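Appendix C: a fully annotated inverse folding record. The material below is reproduced so that readers can follow the format used throughout the book. The structure is listed first as tokens, followed by the designed sequence.
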């Protein structure tokens, strides 16, 4: 058992840290966050440096690395800035679906564009009337000659309205028993006739990431846009969740570390009652507690990524990693505000933004309650 990162992994962390230090700053973050604008220029620079899609095969402009290396990138980006970092870390969201199950033609067409920072990607899973219940889709995909005709509405689509394509979960066989065996994944290009997107409104955090409701009205795509096999979409989605939960855990981990870094820097400089705040035992104990939480979250997140790279799919472990890291992000960011006092509530000191960005990690890609259901199901098993 080796707890050390190898040279390649340490080099990746350093490269991302140097990039973020040179490109991110709180002044740069303020306007895009206020205007709800995606940071395109920084995203494209990240693509030029190969920081997006490091886990893609080299022939598709990736680096041929694994899930662990991908989450190291996400962690360092979000540590430097939770908002800009999250936007870049999620720029290639859903491209893993293409990487694992897309046809060679689809991979060749889209993966290089995502990896090089030329195209955003998105999944369209959640529906307004179904929410977390994705065992049956109201969105349908019907065959008509050599085409699929897609009809339906998806909501809370990350990168919706900006992405070049959507991996859409459709009910292609409404009579299948169980219903999950009638669900397929179909790639729908964003510029297809009948595709429209609208912003769902202002969010508490991650203001630079678009969250949209996307409508598909009699959208026609070729049968070759089917991702993988017909009726296997639900299974692919579950596999994707196991991978993406680790990515979101890394986002939360970086956010927690970034909030902690700022709080630590503040208490080591700020004086109260004649001495620095960091000299008070109560402050030191808080710092110790937070550092321990972050280290525990890092260990389980790295383990989940390493386990995935070994070819083992463990929903219990990935759910634990996301739940633990997300809770840590919220707790650490909350305490960081407390350590800064009134200044922590001010936008100038950033930790309030880290707090707002932390909360979403407990909600998307399965709420903390959904993660508990997954964990408990694995522990208890099927009862008669």
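Designed amino acids, in order:
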């Amino acid at each position: 058992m080796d707890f050390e990162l190898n040279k390649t992994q340490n080099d990746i962390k350093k490269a991302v840290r140097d990039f973020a230090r040179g490109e991110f700053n709180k002044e740069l973050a303020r306007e895009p966050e206020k205007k709800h604008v995606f940071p395109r220029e920084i995203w494209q620079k990240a693509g030029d440096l190969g920081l997006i899609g490091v886990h893609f095969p080299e022939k598709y402009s990736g680096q041929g690395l694994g899930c662990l290396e991908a989450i190291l990138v996400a962690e360092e980006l979000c540590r430097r800035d939770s908002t800009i970092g999250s936007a870049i870390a999620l720029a290639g969201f859903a491209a893993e679906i293409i990487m694992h199950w897309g046809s060679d033609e689809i991979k060749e067409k889209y993966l290089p564009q995502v990896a090089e920072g030329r195209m955003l990607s998105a999944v369209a899973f959640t529906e307004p009337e179904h929410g977390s219940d994705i065992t049956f889709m109201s969105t349908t995909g019907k065959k008509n000659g050599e085409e699929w005709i897609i009809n339906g509405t998806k909501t809370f689509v990350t990168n919706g309205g900006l992405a070049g394509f959507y991996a859409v979960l459709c009910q292609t066989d409404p009579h299948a028993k169980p219903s999950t065996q009638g669900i397929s994944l179909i790639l729908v290009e964003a510029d297809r006739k009948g595709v429209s997107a609208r912003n769902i409104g202002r969010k508490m955090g991650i203001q630079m990431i678009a969250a949209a409701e996307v409508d598909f009205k009699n959208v026609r795509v070729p049968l070759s846009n089917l991702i993988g096999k017909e009726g296997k979409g639900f299974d692919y989605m579950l596999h994707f969740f196991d991978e993406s939960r680790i990515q979101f855990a890394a986002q939360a981990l970086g956010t927690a570390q970034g909030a902690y870094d700022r709080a630590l820097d503040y208490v080591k400089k700020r004086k109260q009652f004649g001495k620095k705040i960091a000299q008070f035992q109560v402050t030191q104990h808080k710092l110790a507690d937070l550092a321990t939480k972050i280290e525990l979250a890092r260990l389980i997140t790295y383990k989940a990524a390493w386990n995935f790279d070994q070819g083992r799919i463990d929903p219990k472990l990935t759910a634990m990693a996301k739940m633990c890291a997300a809770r840590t992000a919220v707790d650490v960011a909350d305490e960081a505000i407390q350590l800064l006092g009134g200044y922590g509530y001010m936008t100038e000191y950033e930790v309030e933004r880290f707090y707002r960005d932390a909360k979403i990690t407990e909600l998307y890609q399965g709420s903390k309650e959904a993660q508990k259901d997954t964990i408990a199901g694995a522990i208890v098993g099927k009862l008669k």
